């Protein structure tokens, strides 16, 4: 008999409750529960080390670092970005009064196609905001060459790229800044949370002011900042979760290996392989359905899986460029974004997390095979 248990696309990595209680007691004793406390500082330190980055600033979620990075770099006018992402990427531009300019993606990686960026640059372009979608690294070298040639800033939305490295170096060191999300659904989570990664102390200081209303000391406000601080409870929770992240990524890798092994034989289903020289985090496992060869459309498969309690997700469908806020933009036409449309119309992200059992994995595969 089939089990009624839902196999969800992800499941949060949770710290040991007894260990968390010890830290909570300490926080209670300290009576310092937010505004850059002890655990906030400790987590920033631990993350710099784990992620191999020089400076990091914690945030209360993964959307506010996007918005704040644009403020900090004083980005205006137009920003070139990808339509194939979670809607927060483009919303951060909107919240800064910036016009998003969508560029199509590379069909192999799902990331912005560097070959199409130059044609989208105008006199108003001030920055590029690519996304390492599913944690697959963008072509950061090519993007930087273009940015340098035209004097543009680059802010990477690295919400999916926690711990991803290329040639032994963190992908988070590319561009001018990178943002992270520590949402419950991510490889590393602080329930809600996020961060900005930067290269120098001066920028870190400025970001720390901006996330605390612009305060630079008790009586001085240096910029119209916002409140996007992470509290002590979530910082402590994050410290504990960081200790088990490597193990969780290894468990995810095990899932990816089995999925690939089984799906290589299924006609009409494709997926992404590991990239040479890249340390992946296995944050998502997207498959792409070719309806003709597979004999079923993506949506037919998606709903059939749901009927059997396998809850994949169609990340990232619909494309951001099709939402009412953005579809009026000249760059939002389907003719400008054929690869992004093809990917959004064929994708299902399979359940992918540390707690999937071998039985769960086989159940997911059964639905597809
Ligand atoms: N940039 C990119 C590229 C992003 O992908 C995101 C967020 C951001 C920026 C913004 O970062 P944040 O401000 O969110 O930190 C989820 C997440 O809410 C969102 O963080 C994430 N990307 C996006 C891709 O996915 P939903 O609406 O699909 O999540 P939800 O609530 O349907 O959860 C999915 C599944 O996860 C559930 O079916 C079961 C499981 N789950 C979820 C939660 C919240 C649990 O088991 N426990 C939980 O507590 O958006």
TrEMBL record:
It comes from the Bacteria. One of its GO terms (biological process) is polysaccharide biosynthetic process. Keywords: Aminotransferase, Pyridoxal phosphate, Transferase. Pfam families: DegT_DnrJ_EryC1. The modification N6-(pyridoxal phosphate)lysine is found at residue 186. GO terms for molecular function: pyridoxal phosphate binding; transaminase activity. The active site is at residue 186. Belongs to the DegT/DnrJ/EryC1 family. PANTHER family: PROTEIN RV3402C, TRANSAMINASE. This is DegT/DnrJ/EryC1/StrS family aminotransferase.
